[in-house]
Write a structure and sequence with these properties.
Two copies of one chain form a homodimer.
Chain A (H helix, E strand, L loop, with lengths): L21 H19 L6 H7 L4 H4 L6 H25 L4 H15 L3 H8 L7 H28 L7 H13 L1 H4 L8 H14 L21
The structure holds a DNA duplex (30 and 30 nucleotides).
DNA sequence: GCTATATCTTACCGGGCGGTAAGATATAGG
DNA sequence: CCTATATCTTACCGCCCGGTAAGATATAGC
């Protein structure tokens, strides 16, 4: 069962005693659910699976959630909350549009290495009810608009080359979103490494900058962090 | 291949007559299956769904496939075949590493707008048997290695700035892979537009290449890059 | 027409899983 | 201790869906 030794203590300890804080237990359910959803997908994760990992039985889950889908939705909400947090501060910060994009990528990439963050982009929206789906979709649109506005800002202030902001945003967001598909906490790459190189590559590009064509009028490159 | 979304006669016509070419029918099953898998996911698509869209009944499908999973695997195979096609020619072509990466992105992005291509990256590998999964994984690794080698080539020939090829490849591949998550044939963006801007943005970056001091003044036309 | 064969349909089974009913059990408060 | 209450378990239902059995039907070749 214990996948990696380094991991935090198992969530089922929250259920060791009956009179333990119910809020803690609810969170424990959510965390193990998120784990399993990422391991096996929502569809292939049964309520029995979740219960088993928590050392309880399926019906006990219904003390904290009404339906399976509610667990899923709460995972989405937790994840979007994380994204929201990191994005609001960027929007308020100063800097060119390009710098904001870099900051966006750095920050967003970090969230994509956290389980709840990964859930937001990796889990299948089709498992949500139409109402919940609308909620999630609305939030995702918000993220996209945020990024797109940074790009437009950059085009206006001259830090970003003219382009279709919509496609550019899809490109950048896609690269970052995809992190949730391959990132593994136990893997060789740290979140920090990924985030910083993504921020650089996606803004500056792969291509080598030719020093002769550059005027050092521009004060250094935008650094992410 | 008609580009307009409206065209393309429905696949169920392949089953109009009993004595129609079985190969055509098999392909018709595959194509409608791919459609449905992309619309509803593999898990939520029942064999009855597929059969219904083909105006036949479920057991008829078993004349062409042994199990549901086989249909899925064949979708993967068709898709990887498409990718293979477009990648081999690039590898052989001349040019700098950076140019090859650009060609890779352009070509690969185009495949990601075709149903079978989308299946490869969008469908859940967890629905495959361990054996089939190994096959698909192997193929995906091959793609990744190809891209990574282009990047390394570019670093060597000086067309690409020094970086970790592994992370860079993840970044680029991710952006392109994600296309299959949002692209819609009936949507406003054409495959051509997407592919060409992706190729440019991902190699050259967002950042304005030539830092001309004019900030607001319209740069009178050019910047055609 | 008649027959052989591939093709397709109707009817059905069984397992997995979300969800529920009803009863057991632990704990706080008196 | 005793009781009230929240918490958890055992047992079970019903639906969905992949897969199968067995029989119907269309078509080619004679």
């Amino acid at each position: 069962m214990p996948k990696s030794a380094l991991a935090q203590q198992p969530h089922w300890k929250a259920f060791a005693s009956r009179r333990r804080d119910p809020t803690t237990k609810r969170e424990a359910v959510l965390k193990t659910a998120a784990e399993l959803f990422l391991e096996k997908s929502y569809g292939r994760t049964s309520l029995d699976d979740i219960a088993e990992r928590l050392n309880i039985t399926k019906p006990a889950l219904y003390h904290y959630f009404h339906k399976k889908e509610e667990i899923l939705l709460e995972c989405y909400r937790w994840g979007t909350g994380l994204i929201e947090e990191s994005l609001t501060e960027i929007a308020g910060s100063a800097g060119t549009g390009l710098e904001k994009v870099a900051a966006f990528v750095y920050s967003y990439a970090n969230v994509m290495t956290v389980n709840f963050g990964r859930c937001v982009m990796r889990l299948d929206e089709g498992d949500l009810s139409t109402q919940a789906l609308e909620e999630v979709r609305t939030y995702k649109r918000k993220i996209d608009r945020r990024l797109r506005s940074f790009i437009q800002e950059g085009i206006r202030d001259g830090s970003i080359a003219p382009c279709d902001p919509k496609i550019a945003a899809f490109s950048i967001a896609g690269a970052v979103n995809w992190i949730c598909m391959w990132y593994e906490p136990a893997g060789p790459l740290t979140a920090e490494e990924i985030a910083s190189q993504f921020a650089r590559t996606l803004t500056q590009g792969l291509a080598r900058r030719k020093p002769d064509s550059l005027r050092r009028a521009a004060p250094a490159g935008p650094s992410a962090d």
